[in-house]
Amino acid sequence: RRVIEFEQVTLEYPATRTLALDNLTVKIGKGEFVYLVGHSGAGKSSFMNLILKRALPTRGEVRVAGQPLSHYRGRRTPLLRRRMGTVFQDNLLLGHLNAYDNVAFALRVIGVPQREWPGRVSAALRTVGLEHKTHALPMQLSLGEQQRVAIARAIVSDPPLLLADEPTGNLDPDHSREVLRVLQGVHLRGTTVVVATHARDLVETYRSRTLTLRRGKLVRDEHLGGYAL
Ligand code: ADP
Ligand code: ADP
Q1: pLDDT by residue (tens digit) across 16-25?
Q2: What is the 3-state secondary structure (H, E, C) of the chain?
Q3: What is the pLDDT of residue 227?
Q4: Which family does it belong to (predicted)?
């Protein structure tokens, strides 16, 4: 089953007449772990933004879970966001809330009954290896740990799809590997994971399908990865 499908998708920013994505066709199936690599400006964030419906294609169609994005309109818009968890370079944890409350916040937003929070938040913190930091505030955590809390927040709602855009962008190599290991763990539990990155060593440490963008074009799609721009 397809989780994400791009069919001849072009995204042009009219203001700057930039062709951010140029006639992209690609399918990502359920349970895959996919890297999206490319130099800065290649179109990685544009790809993510289309899936999140933060941008609309100029031409072509994007489908999520078999449905064209136009299906997720009006009252159905929140359904789209519930199908995916997101992790970005700047994880934007709430500084005045501890790890538990930052993760629980995601459940509050989607209206999960409060009695379910403790079990689900503990399970998510366990998945990222931070059950012992439940009561720590973000400033008491390393950047890598903060990013793992952000991953726990993204997966606590059990989304079928996890999107990570430069999740190790601010991290040193050790913390980056830690975060990657956590993403692998999420993948091994059955979640489809898409990671946009230009961290070569990561892509080479845990090899998996790798899509390479160059100036908006998909120039490589390789099953066991490897990073070459
Ligand atoms: P940015 O996105 O920060 O503008 P790039 O994506 O071009 O930069 O590259 C990030 C870093 O990785 C740079 O230091 C660059 O030299 C290095 N790099 C990128 N691609 C390759 C490659 N194919 N071989 C070796 N080094 C690379
Ligand atoms: P990446 O994430 O790989 O760095 P982006 O998807 O952010 O690449 O950018 C692709 C191209 O689109 C770049 O040339 C960038 O300058 C341009 N771009 C991105 N966002 C906008 C925007 N909001 N308006 C105009 N041009 C944009």
Answers
A1: 899 999 999 9
A2: CEEEEEEEEEEEECCCCEEEEEEEEEEEECCCEEEEECCCCCCHHHHHHHHCCCCCCCEEEEEECCEEHHHCCHHHHHHHHHCEEEEECCCCCCCCCCHHHHHHHHHHHCCCCHHHHHHHHHHHHHHCCCHHHCCCCHHHCCHHHHHHHHHHHHHCCCCCEEEEECCCCCCCHHHHHHHHHHHHHHHHCCCEEEEECCCHHHHHHCCCEEEEEECCEEEEEECCCCCCC
A3: 60
A4: Belongs to the ABC transporter superfamily.
